[in-house]
Each structure stands twice: as C-alpha cells, then as structure tokens.
Design brief:
By secondary structure, this protein is of the alpha+beta class. It folds into three domains: 4-16 and 27-79, no CATH class; 80-204; 205-361, no CATH class. It is built from six helices and 15 strands. The strands form four sheets. The protein has a five-stranded antiparallel beta sheet with strand order 9-10-15-12-13, covered by helices on one side. It has a four-stranded mixed beta sheet with strand order 3-4-5-6, covered by helices on one side. The longest helix has 29 residues, at 28-56. The chain is globular.
C-alpha cells in the first residue's frame, strides 16, 4: 500500500492497517514515529536534489550522475582485468543443508554470475528475492574494486545475474499473499550467506560470522529486536576484526542503559568470545558473548546461521568457531537452544548467545 499518494500522507489507512491486522501492533506511536522519520529523510533527499538542480541545472546534474556510474563501471573493469577469461566457483550451505552455488564467468566484456544449482524454495522463512541477491552482488563487486567509489548501479553495467527459477534465491510470488514464500530470514540471513559465497569464489577474504544473530523478545505489551555482531574474516595481509557488525548487518546495538530502562531485562554480560576466531598467519576475528536475564514472562525468538556449518578459513587458515546459545532456567538448568528457536521464558530465566568467529587466513 501507499504511505504517500498524490502528495498526501495516508495516516488513517496506515493506522488502520497497524491496528486491525491479524497480529496488530503493540506500539502504534513507535511505528508512526519510525514512518515519520523515514518520510522526513526522503523529503530531505528530494529537497536537496531539487536544490542541486536549481543551482546547477538539470542537464549538469544528469551529466555527473551518469559520470559517477561510468566511473564505477571503469573501476570494476580495471579490477576484473586479471580475471578475464576465467571462471571461478563456490558453494556454501546453510545450517539446514540448503545450498548456495555460484559460478562467476569473467569474459572480455561481460561478467555472468550464475546461481544455478542452488536449492529449491525454502519451506520456512529463508527465501531471498531478486532485490536481496542483487544487493549482495553489488556489495561484493564494490569490495573487488581498487578505488574508493560511491556504491551505484554503474557496477552492474557489464554484469548479468542468472537465477534458477523457483529456487530459494528466486521464488515465485503469486497474488495470494498466503501462498507466497516467507522471506524475513532471506533478507537477514541468506544475504549474509550470499556474500560469504561470493567472497569465497573471488578469494577476497575468509568467511565472517555470516549471520545477523537476530534476537527478539516480548509479550503482549512490548517487542524488542536486535542483531548481534561477531568475528570478521581475515584476508590477504590483514586479520579479521573482533566483535563487530560486518557485511549486511550495518546496525548499531542498543545501549545497555537504554535496554534495561525500557524493557524487563538485564544485560549480564556483553564480551568478546575469546578464541572463537580461526587461527592462521592472519587470524579471524572473535565473536561476541551476550547474556540476558529476564524480569518477567515473555516469548523469545532467535534466527541465526553458522551454528552447524563453521565460517570457512582461506589460504590455509582455520575455520572460525560456529555460534552457540543456551537457556539457563531460573532453577539453574542449562538447555541448549537451536540456531532458529522460539521459547516461552519465565521471570529469572537467562539466555546466553555466543556468536561465530571469523575464518583465519
């Protein structure tokens, strides 16, 4: 649906959707504030673009927009020069065995990135779509460039992406939303694993933690969601960073003071998971340990990867350690949790999340 149509913000329709949905919002004011912030940023961008055109003329603005894209295309062409005439391949698997396969054919004029052989539509929520795949591709192509260039579509001028029909990277979407594949984990988790696979094919770096460690908890009156960093992979001539967000996460975590003030939770531990990065001439970065105690009954959900499949090392470097997580009940029992898990928790229960380390190089 539209947020703005013909210049009018459709607040009444938006509010109706949020209040009357099968699973209605628990924090309408927060939702509306978020939408207002997004709308304000878009309006600021539109105003800045109009001012640029007014100050310099539309033809001049278009000229330099095209020049930025041409500069990106040239930078990629230069970076690919040593690869011309080669084909590189890689395969990575999700923790449940779903495969991402890629063959990158680098011709004299064009690059073909072929994901044929990747697994079929995922029965749960780990489905991507074209936008997610293209975002991962353009991100890795930018990493390949030797110049500091702004990310833009010029990188895709000589690139063709081949996606197998009805795979979990390119599922079919029909008119009935109840029959459409679920994609929330495709956006957060498969995007990371796509980057892992492309980096592996191009040998740019060892595998980073390869997950966003999505952690959610809440009850009938509130909901909280965060992503947790981990270890970055090492590469030619550099060690991986420890306890950082990398690749597609690009988020900042909630400050402990704000978390404990707003929600019925205590953050008991937030530390580097020492020794979780892969060994090597250039070691991988270490992951994170994050431990929560909950002060009232609520529901918890975790969605993550690299709990069974270890983040790969490169050039003889060792793999990083997979992540793990467990529940410590209020009476002291320790219960292992799966990488994708949901539980009902009681006041006094604790959840410990240990995120993956990066591969060594």
């Amino acid at each position: 649906m539209y947020l703005v149509k013909a210049g009018e913000v459709l607040w009444e329709e938006i509010e109706r959707q949020l209040r009357e949905a099968p699973y209605p919002t628990r924090a309408l004011s927060d939702n509306l504030a978020d939408l207002n912030a997004a709308l304000a940023s878009l309006r600021a961008g539109a105003d800045a673009l109009r001012k640029l055109a007014a100050d310099h003329g539309l033809d001049q603005v278009r000229y330099y927009m095209n020049a930025l894209q041409a500069h990106a295309a040239t930078a990629l062409d230069e970076a690919l020069a040593p690869w011309r005439g080669r084909t590189v391949n890689a395969e990575e698997k999700l923790d449940d065995g779903s495969a991402i396969k890629v063959a990158i054919h680098i011709g004299e004029k064009e690059v073909e990135i072929d994901f044929s052989g990747s697994s079929p539509v995922h029965p749960r929520n780990l489905n991507a779509n074209i936008a997610i795949v293209y975002s991962a591709v353009i991100y890795v192509l930018r990493l390949l460039c030797k110049k500091d260039i702004p990310l833009n579509e010029g990188l895709m001028r000589q690139v063709r992406v081949v996606l197998p029909d009805d795979s979990f990277l390119h599922p079919r979407f029909v008119d009935d939303p109840n029959l459409c594949p679920a994609v929330v984990g495709g956006n957060t988790e498969v995007s990371q694993r796509l980057v892992d696979t492309l980096l592996k094919a191009l040998q740019l770096a060892a595998c980073s933690q390869g997950t966003m460690n999505n952690f959610l908890f809440g009850n009938s009156r509130f909901g909280y969601y965060e992503t947790i960093g981990g270890g970055a992979g090492a590469g030619p001539g550099f060690a991986g960073r420890s306890a950082v967000h990398q690749h597609m996460t690009n988020t900042r975590i909630t400050d402990p003071e704000d978390l404990e003030w707003r929600y019925p939770a205590r953050l008991l531990r937030f530390a580097i998971r020492r020794g979780s990065g892969g060994a090597g001439q250039w070691p991988g970065g270490d992951g994170i340990i994050r431990e929560f105690e909950f002060l009232e009954a609520l529901e918890m959900t975790l969605l993550s990867q690299h709990r069974h499949v270890a983040p790969y090392g490169m050039a003889g470097g060792h793999d990083g350690k997979p992540g793990q997580q467990y529940l410590i009940t209020k009476d002291g029992r320790i219960i292992p949790l799966d990488g994708a898990d949901s539980r009902s928790l009681e006041a006094g229960d604790c959840v410990v999340i240990e995120t993956p380390g990066g591969g060594g190089g």
